[in-house]
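queue> holo job accepted (uracil)
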Amino acid sequence: MRMVDIIAKKRDGHELLPEEIAFFVNGFVSGDIPDYQMAALLMAIYLKDLSHKETAVLIDAMLHSGETIDLTGIAGVKVDKHSTGGVGDKTSLVLAPLVAAAGVPVAKMSGRGLGHTGGTIDKLESFTGFSVEMSSEEFVDRVNRHGIAICGQSKELVPADKMIYALRDVTATVDHIPLIAGSIMSKKLAMGADAIVLDVKCGSGAFMKDQKSAVALALTMVEAGKAMGKETVALVTDMDQPLGNAIGNALEVKEALESLQGRGPQDFMELVYALGSRMVVLGQKAHDLEEGRKMLEDLISSGAAFAKFKEFIATQGGDADQADFPETLPAAKYMREVKAPESGFIHRLEADLIGHASMLLGAGRATKADVIDLGAGIMLRQKRGDRVAKGQVLAELYANKESLFAEAEKVVLSAYKIGKKAVPGPDLVLKVV
Ligand code: URA
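queue> job finished
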């Protein structure tokens, strides 16, 4: 078999055979296939697409490109959740302890990532001493004893994704549905979960800008999960404006702590309950979504979910007392208010621009080497549908250098579109697949 023939076949729009897909995935990981040939194939795939069958074979080949995690030592139905990512998405910080408190074992691998803020692990590192370093035996043991553990991304897990993603990133082939599905589902399946709940974001702050492509991505992933024998559900949810009010690592942790104590923003809690109720049903702790939601609401109002969060932080070496005293978490030295330039109703609040502004303030990393400022970020005080008066505070910016405010303020102002007519707030869950 020759890589050049596989490239030509896809360039001409033909379906690849399973052995051809396995050949290029394994050959690329072993170093036998050079970057330039893989880059050419990725572009051919981008332009000519992959069928559902090819996508399922790609996921299988990627999943077996490295180690897989064996969770059979953990009792119960393991339900994993994945979000395609967005601005202010701190859902895992609340969902993981919440469903763990409901008795669903949470064995989660999270990342740091590039973007507007850090990933879940960066956020959790707001707690002094918190660590995700552990052996796979310790990981399984912690989930069995405490119902929850979060580890970092292992180099050995799905090496094909790391290598292919790095190439997609520099060849303009990231935003392609079968390639995104291959990347996400191979990692989820390698983690050994029994069932998967996917949160596919849609809107200006997401990979998928419109509902049609978000639904197509959701369908591709759900079909792939089912083809691999895993119950898979996807929610397509709004990411046209940021989720909740906090954007930035420690700011998001503080909002998550508030949420675990029953004081979360309404849009954020709607998403937490929508995803969480499906997780507890798939995890066989509730019969239907209504019962699941009620169970989760009770776990928040009784304090059990907050207690589980503190237990989780403590078992991973973090200072759990900081959860009771959030003022001890990292905080920025300076704050600047952004005020409404006119009166009216907020028609749009563009998530990608708010994400960009939070990067400018130091909350995210543009390259792997960048150091994140855990205290930096944005608190949104007004969101879509809200009525504002001229001069009213739209958002607060947080940074450790005052010189960062001028540009971030301009970007935040450009994210708010104010109009004269009243508009409804957004629906958060747009579709269930
Ligand atoms: N998230 C991933 O893990 N992979 C992609 O390709 C896109 C989003």
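queue> The two ends are 38 Å apart (CA to CA).
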